[in-house]
Here is the input.
Amino acid sequence: MFGSGGWNDALGDARAEAVIIEYEGVVNECIEDLDGDGVVGGADLTLLLSSWNTQGTGDINGDGNTDGADLTLLLSKWGLCS
Ligand SMILES: [Ca+2]
Ligand SMILES: [Ca+2]
Here is the structure.
């Protein structure tokens, strides 16, 4: 919890605490994240569009062509991969 004038904990005793978050295993959990940065966003859209009508990076559903179906899949996962 953020208090005025600095960081403190939820109990309000003004002690600083650290939280360590570790990620293990697979970071990229969605195939729509074409560049593997953990977010489905503009960079992935660019990759998809650059392979439009080809069996390229943007062929998310693996049907052999990058088209509107793949675009729909990408847009449906827009944001953080989870
Ligand atoms: Ca991405
Ligand atoms: Ca496809």
Notes: The chain has a mean pLDDT of 83. The first helix runs from residue 42 to 50. The CA atoms of residues 48 and 71 lie 7 Å apart.
